[in-house]
Amino acid sequence: MMAYMNVIFRRFVLLAGFCTGLSVTAMANSDAVRFSENVNLALRRTADVLLRANGDSLSVIPPVKQSDANTFSVQMDRMFDYDKLPETLQRSLTSYHIDRPYSVAVLDCETGEVKLGYQFFDLNQPDGIPCKGRSRDEGCYTVQIRFTPEAPKPKSAGNTWLLVSFGGTLAGLGFIAWNRARHKKVPETKPQDVPAPHSRLTFGNSWLDTANQTLYNGESIQTLTFREAKLLAVFARNINQVLERDAILKSVWEDEGVTVGRSVDVFVSRLRKMLSADPQVKISAIHGVGYKMEVYS
Questions:
Q1: Closest C-alpha to 115, from 106, 125, 103, 104
Q2: What is the distance, to the nearest Å, from the Cα of residue 124 to the centroid of all Cα atoms in its chain?
Q3: Maximum Cα–Cα distance for the chain, whole Å?
Q4: Number of alpha carbons in the 13 Å side-chain half-sphere of residue 210
């Protein structure tokens, strides 16, 4: 009997080591799939915002194409405002937590010729984005984004054996636990329902999706940065109430450790611009105290 149990244990150890190796590969594949899905969504959001900026809310956006692991493109059947592309695309990528460097090319649909383009680092250059502000011809264009490939993670035989050994240890512990528990009846338990978080905050003619950091203002859809969304949520939860500057800093910037008083003014200015299309909402400065979001019916 003991010899038979030893054979089962050895097989269990080998199987656990094999499964551990498979789980590492599965995790890598999962990351690549998740990256592709997020880029797809970011590009479609970019196309939607650019079309809406041109007064087009009805045209169908073609599927995003992926030519390799790092290159994606979406076709725009008519010319869009190129000057709005860099900021719109960067906001979309940020909203889906994509922070890899990239290059952008605007191609002629028929010839594939590059008409416009820029690099990620151009966003922070004093001269700005190349060709910005120049006149362009109407026509069909393809927006292509190519990401810098990620450096491959180092692999070593030692790590592989470590994973196998770790999997074997887990298998051994699992076998012991199973052997002890097989004579013990465990009562069944039912999972408790977890309520979905409330991520929608409504004010005036606008509402904020806190989960996706997105502001819906009439026909306008704007993606906010993490800090912008956090500040707007504080105002939305305290409508028509005066919020002291120190309280705002503590609520929005407390996790940074060090804060700058001007941060509040800068971010409030950004929110005012985003909310300018909603006449029912106004963020007022209370001299010497702080700010108040006023909502009119």
A1: 106
A2: 21
A3: 85
A4: 14
φ/ψ of 292, rounded to 5, equals -145, 130
The C-alpha angle with vertex 38 and arms to 37 and 39, in degrees rounded to 5, equals 95
CA 291 → CA 238, 263, 287, distances in Å? 11, 13, 8
Give dist(CA 240, CA 263) in Å, integer: 22
b/e code 159-180 from CB counts within 10 Å (16+ = b) = eeeebbeebbebbeeebeeeee
Q: Which runs of E-coded beta strand occur in the chain?
A: 65-68, 71-76, 102-108, 114-119, 141-147, 200-203, 206-209, 214-217, 220-223, 242-244, 281-286, 290-295
The single residue listed with the structure tokens 């298998």 is 171
Length of the chain: 297
CA distances from 188 to 3, 135, 185 (A): 34, 70, 9
Contact 65, 73 (CB under 8 A): yes
pTM, 2 dp: 0.45
Determine the Cα–Cα distance for residues 82 and 116; give it in Å rounded to an integer: 9
Residues 6+ positions from 249 with CB-CB distance below 8 Å = 259, 261, 263, 264
Task: Give 10-residue mean pLDDT values along the chain (297 residues).
Answer: 53 52 58 89 92 84 91 86 89 90 89 86 76 74 90 56 56 61 47 49 90 86 91 93 90 65 83 91 92 90
- Whole-angstrom distance, CA of residue 23 vs CA of residue 46: 34
Can you name the residues that pair with 65 across neighbouring β-strands?
A: 73
Q: Determine whether 230 is exposed, middle or buried from the number of CB atoms within 10 Å of its CB (0-12, 13-18, 19+).
A: middle
